[in-house]
Design brief:
The protein is of the alpha/beta class. The chain has a domain at 20-47 and 55-77. 40% of the residues lie in helices and 23% in strands. It has helices spanning 11-23, 37-44, 61-69, 87-92, 105-116; strands at 3-7, 27-31, 48-52, 54-55, 58-59, 78-82, 97-100. It has a five-stranded parallel β-sheet with strand order 2-1-3-6-7, sandwiched between helices. The protein has a two-stranded antiparallel ribbon with strand order 4-5. Strand 6 (78-82), helix 4 (87-92) and strand 7 form a beta-alpha-beta unit. The protein is globular, with a radius of gyration of 13 Å. It starts with a strand and ends with a helix. 28% of the residues are buried.
Length: 120
């Protein structure tokens, strides 16, 4: 079962994503603190990271850059999300995809499937 780390501080949104991912056969792992993203990804070794651009009033682009320059985890796809169009910034910082909130669960599942293939 492929793990997906969800980095988001919005409890309702995070729980919705967890439910959708579980229904599709993924194993979601939540991370709510920007300073814990790297450690969580290193420990969990997920197939994909789904990260909101803003967590607890902090920008997570620094965490994205750190993920993409760490030799242990740089190949893990990262999908960034935000309620504002920050696609260009996120893609420049190394994101593999950007999704504007709100989005349909099917849209996110299509992107996940494209980046990591079918769930195990």
């Amino acid at each position: 079962m492929d793990k997906v780390v969800i980095v988001d501080d919005d409890r309702v949104f995070r729980e919705l994503l967890k439910t959708v991912l579980q229904m599709e056969g993924y194993q979601p792992v939540a991370c709510t603190q920007p300073d814990q993203v790297l450690d969580t990804v290193r420990v969990e070794q997920p197939a994909l990271v789904l990260m909101d651009v803003h967590i607890h009033n902090q920008d997570t682009l620094g965490a994205l850059r750190a993920l993409k320059t760490d030799p242990q985890i740089e190949d893990i796809p990262v999908v960034m999300t935000s309620g504002m169009d920050r696609a260009d910034e996120c893609l420049e910082a190394g994101a593999d995809a950007f999704v504007l909130k709100p989005f349909r669960p099917s849209e996110m599942l299509d992107i996940i499937s494209r980046l990591i293939g079918s769930s195990s």
